[in-house]
Amino acid sequence: QVQLVESGGGVVQAGGSLRLSCAASGRTFNSATMGWFRQAPGKEREFIAAITWTGGIRSSTYYYADSVKGRFTISRDNSKITVYLQMSSLKPEDTAIYYCAADSRAYYSSGDYSASRAYAYWGQGTQVTVSS
Asked: Which of 100, 79, 93, 102 is nearest to 129 (CA)?
């Protein structure tokens, strides 16, 4: 069983930066996909970024939604305990609840890693509010 806990959300001024953390506990996987999604009021859950790895930390692949490319960066520590989402040049439209998700499978197609249904484990979410 895997537990995911997000932290780092808060209120930030437009143009500022914020780093979200997703701490994983319990079972870890040699191969996995971990992703970030967000959901704004009245809108459906949106894929933001994902990291996929196989063979422990020997290889990894990164994916980003077009809306955040060049502004957001997903990363992980070498122990695979924590995954981060570094957000820069934040805009008011980035305001949402951000969720961390994980699955024990390595995904390499957008139809998989960008779909919420592909992930077995989810955190509780952390609120990000970007003020103008």
From this structure: 93
